Amino acid sequence: MIGVGEQQMTERRIHVGQGDHYVTSDRNVVLSTVLGSCVAMCLRDPLAGIGGMNHFLLPEGAGAGTDAGRRYGAYAMELLINDVLKAGGRRDRLEAKLFGGGRMFDSLKDVGTSNADFAERFLADEGIPVVGASLRGAGGRRLHYWPVTGRALQRAVTDAVAPRPAPAPPPSVGSGALELF
């Protein structure tokens, strides 16, 4: 039996940056990212113990160059789904959690809402159930996701890059953290 302190020592954190995705069946891997208006989909097959995360910037667009499409939602969603299936997941058992889509600036177009709307619509069209979500709101969030268990932990980002009024944190509970199992 592994104690709590021992479990934390064996965890391996992998950062999923903008336009990236990562799939694993390693119980010791925790995927992490920081989201503003971007959205991350956490996807897994709970029976196979395989899952992953993506991080996209915009819902749709035309890419130029070999990796330009990675920043768009449609491409990012397809990549993650296909890689979970290639790793041994089954489409009929997939479940998703969605995070991000925050409104970062009042004076700009609300890209976060467009991203959140796109992600929800995409999963509904694909028939993949959303079993947890924290979308929209104001400001950013840090996300940690354990793909094998499906545990997700979110914390509001409170550090400001430039002086401005602090945005309201995304929906949270208690200490400013939201945990979805």
If you had to describe this structure to a student in words, what would you say it looks like?
The structure is a single chain. Residues 172-176 have low confidence and may be disordered. The protein is 20% helix and 30% strand. By secondary structure, the chain is of the alpha+beta class. It has helices at residues 4-10, 73-86, 111-126; strands spanning 12-15, 21-24, 29-35, 39-45, 50-54, 95-100, 130-135, 141-146, 151-156, 177-180.
Number of helices: 3
Query: Regions with pLDDT < 50 over 5+ consecutive residues?
Result: 172-176
What's the main sheet like? Answer: 5 strands, mixed
Report the average pLDDT across residues: 83
What series of H and E elements makes up the topology?
HEEEEEHEHEEEE
Rg on CA atoms, Å? 16 Å
Strand order of the largest sheet: 1-3-8-9-10
The rough form would be described as globular
Strand content: 25-35%
Quantity of strands, as a count: 10
Characterize this entry briefly:
This protein is an alpha+beta fold and 181 residues long.
Question: What topology does this entry show?
Answer:
Elements lengths: L3 H7 L1 E4 L5 E4 L4 E7 L3 E7 L4 E5 L18 H14 L8 E6 L10 H16 L3 E6 L5 E6 L4 E6 L20 E4 L1
Parallel strand pairs: 1-3, 6-7
Antiparallel strand pairs: 2-5, 3-8, 4-5, 4-6, 8-9, 9-10
Overview features:
alpha+beta; 181 residues
